[in-house]
Prior knowledge:
Chain A is an alpha/beta fold.
Amino acid sequence: MDTLLSAEAMSGRAAAWKREGLTIGFVPTMGFLHRGHVSLMEALRPRVDRLVVSIYVNPLQFGPKEDLGRYPRDPEGDSQKCAAVGVDALFMPENLYPSGFSTSVEVSGLTERLCGAFRPGHFEGVATVCTRLFGLTRADVAILGEKDYQQLQVVRRLVRDLALPVEIVGGELIRDEDGLALSSRNVYLSPDERKRALTLSKAMRAMASGGGDVEARLALGRSILDVDKLDYLEIVDPDTLQPATDLSKPTRAVIAAFVGKTRLLDNVAVAAV
Amino acid sequence: MDTLLSAEAMSGRAAAWKREGLTIGFVPTMGFLHRGHVSLMEALRPRVDRLVVSIYVNPLQFGPKEDLGRYPRDPEGDSQKCAAVGVDALFMPENLYPSGFSTSVEVSGLTERLCGAFRPGHFEGVATVCTRLFGLTRADVAILGEKDYQQLQVVRRLVRDLALPVEIVGGELIRDEDGLALSSRNVYLSPDERKRALTLSKAMRAMASGGGDVEARLALGRSILDVDKLDYLEIVDPDTLQPATDLSKPTRAVIAAFVGKTRLLDNVAVAAV
Lengths: 273, 273
């Protein structure tokens, strides 16, 4: 496995692979890799000739009061995990953006609700970094986890709208044995916070399997939660992310909540009834 | 030459060419082609295996009071000109954007002055359509005329910032025999307006060849102009488009002015003195 430390090194390597006619798969991450990330790599590995993983804590997608400065890092552990899965290139740039960088990519509509309402500018940062990363890596296919469900749908939309030549695949949300959705931010949780964090996945499970209409399931979910601040708990149309009015088509239950100072996400497919 | 009428047809064709390992050149236009456009096609033709020209009057880059509805069109004449130059695919979509299109690309800084100050949203429309067109055509190299100098620099910047895998080439501004910079919009000019329109190229020529400092050359240019409304006349740094303070490095004289209801552009390189 090669470790590439600059945008130039990455784009040069990708261009060389393209000249050889090789297909390129790509997993964008912010590092501190867990089994969720590894599952994305494993899903893509057999589909492509060359597999790239990026680790970059993208300042553009953090608000001024968010956890950019203390986001957890483990470059050595990350590197070992990538090598074990058969990653060809680990792209870990110190600076991803060129001097005088002044371009942004914005997706309207999809980004205005849910996390977009609580993290102004977040999805513009995500859309911009993903577009640049897809260009640098020349990815034919990229995989993003369904844990960040709104992010996945935003990236799908920008790829379609800008006709970027990359296929976007959604990777299954991976949970710990106790049900907690895997996230690099789980490391922030104290033992007591972790117990209460489990109420997110319990609420998701209950809302997916329980009966009743949208309102009944939302009430059920809320009754289970033990969090410090609920940003949102909704059942939405998976494509538009607008609130679902009934359950006659497949929908998605989505949640964002703080436990202590840690903001956690979870979501689950709700089958049509 | 094949004429492709939908985004799907274009992207399918480009993907097939890429699978064959062919290189693709691209000339984006709004049609009503003149010798300036043809010179761009001729410049790219020997460099690529397949040459694509797009004709699309992009609503995103027109303001509500601008000439979108009356922009001149000549699909049959355009098609003949493209075929004569050896274009492989003429991409003339009726609708370029998919249903629910909601993504935009914005370049800050470079777009705020000059035409950007007079045409709010214009360069966002240009940046967005170019990004989508580069994706659909899978262009390895694209050429844009230097007549729209700010546009060229904005597109160069977004390609660099987003790491789009396309090389941007600037094509020389082509003039009519009387010196008028070729533009599809010249067809709007009455005989009297055309005479006065020539004062733009006369001013450019005088500012490039005349002596004196920045202020002296600006005064010289202004003394030559006979226009109805001057949007701007400036001497700028070619990369930043900020006003030049001296002529010790190469600069660019740029102008936008209305003659009658027709907005005209011109520019010229000013050699370092």
